[in-house]
């Protein structure tokens, strides 16, 4: 995977930008609020048609404009790739891949692969279970875009089941009982398929995670076993999701929502055998979060035989000198774009340094 050029029109604070990108390491330097992260956000948007910052599409359009354009020229499997998207403040967006209209977002997945490191990644360790579920699910889809259908099917069935539960208002008549049985069967099937996907992904990424944490913490090669681990063991896995849904039916009806299933699962993270969320220091948690991203990047690289484009958004300001050195020393091979508000980080060895100021970029 190789990004060659990016063009922006009315995206965030960029009125117009036409930028060629180095195949190696590119460092973007500028004060806060000048547009460094906006550029990485635009590149990542073309991979999933969503913002890694959680922004809605209308926010991405520059103030005073009705639409923005994001265009990238890339190379994938030795073939040229052109992705163009028009983001409209009001109305439906439009995306073209090699000049052909994109019918579904799912058809874009895997065309352009990116790995994003951002300061908010600390929440992968400290935050809610939903963030860890999304990390695992997104990673699985990066390995095999076809797996997105499993997640979508669970979401669809959950919406239908929850709508029925709310409609029942705590009372289940004969007709509703028959319909609920249908949705229970569908959710059990789709949910267990999603659970198997997560279990397989967690097993695959676990050894990469421990290796990455060892490298970042400076203990690579040390005789330490299972220091950083990830585990997925949903409560419903023992007896199956169908049995769990049946057991929770009374509570589901009372609350008007599905209380058990893959949408409630936890992805557990451990450091030295203890929960990383509660027992690790903030420095250890940050290293763990970076190790998760590095592990995911290496898993995708191995599975697809092509390294995703690595986007590092101001992660160095959040790390002490030792962790900065370890991260730079263990960056995977391939194309990298990194941002910093200070000087080029020692050890970065950039091929291209760019200055960002008020939505303009200069070498």
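^ Assign residues to that structure.
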């Amino acid at each position: 995977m190789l990004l060659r050029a990016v063009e922006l029109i009315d995206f965030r604070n960029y009125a117009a930008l036409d930028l060629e990108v180095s195949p190696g390491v590119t460092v973007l330097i500028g004060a806060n609020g000048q547009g460094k992260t906006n550029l990485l956000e635009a590149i990542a948007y073309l991979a999933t048609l969503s913002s890694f910052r959680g922004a809605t599409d209308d926010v991405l359009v520059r103030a005073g404009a009705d639409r923005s354009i994001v265009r990238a020229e890339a190379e994938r499997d030795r073939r040229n790739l052109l992705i163009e998207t028009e983001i409209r403040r009001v109305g439906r967006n439009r995306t073209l891949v090699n000049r052909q209209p994109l019918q579904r977002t799912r058809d874009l997945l895997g065309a352009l692969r990116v790995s994003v490191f951002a300061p908010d990644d600390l929440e992968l360790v400290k935050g809610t279970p939903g963030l860890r579920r999304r990390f695992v699910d997104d990673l699985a889809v990066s390995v095999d875009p076809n797996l997105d259908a499993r997640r979508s099917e669970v979401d669809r069935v959950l919406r239908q089941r929850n709508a029925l539960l709310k409609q029942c208002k705590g009372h289940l008549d004969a007709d509703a009982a028959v319909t609920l049985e249908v949705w229970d069967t569908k959710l059990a099937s789709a949910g267990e398929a999603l659970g198997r996907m997560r279990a397989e992904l967690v097993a695959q990424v676990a050894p990469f995670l421990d290796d990455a944490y060892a490298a970042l913490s400076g203990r690579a090669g040390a005789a330490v076993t299972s220091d950083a681990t990830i585990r997925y063991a949903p409560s419903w896995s023992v007896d199956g999701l169908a049995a769990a849904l049946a057991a929770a039916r009374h509570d589901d009806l009372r609350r008007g929502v599905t209380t058990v299933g893959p949408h409630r699962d936890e992805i557990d993270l451990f450091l030295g055998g203890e929960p990383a969320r509660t027992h690790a220091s903030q420095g250890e948690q940050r290293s763990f979060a970076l190790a998760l991203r590095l592990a995911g990047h290496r898993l995708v690289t191995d599975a697809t035989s092509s390294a995703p484009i690595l986007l590092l958004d101001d992660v160095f300001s959040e790390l002490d000198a030792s962790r900065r050195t370890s991260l730079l020393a263990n960056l995977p091979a391939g194309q990298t774009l990194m941002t910093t508000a200070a000087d080029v980080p020692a050890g970065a060895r950039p091929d291209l340094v760019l200055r960002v100021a008020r939505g303009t970029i200069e070498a």
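The two ends are 24 Å apart (CA to CA).
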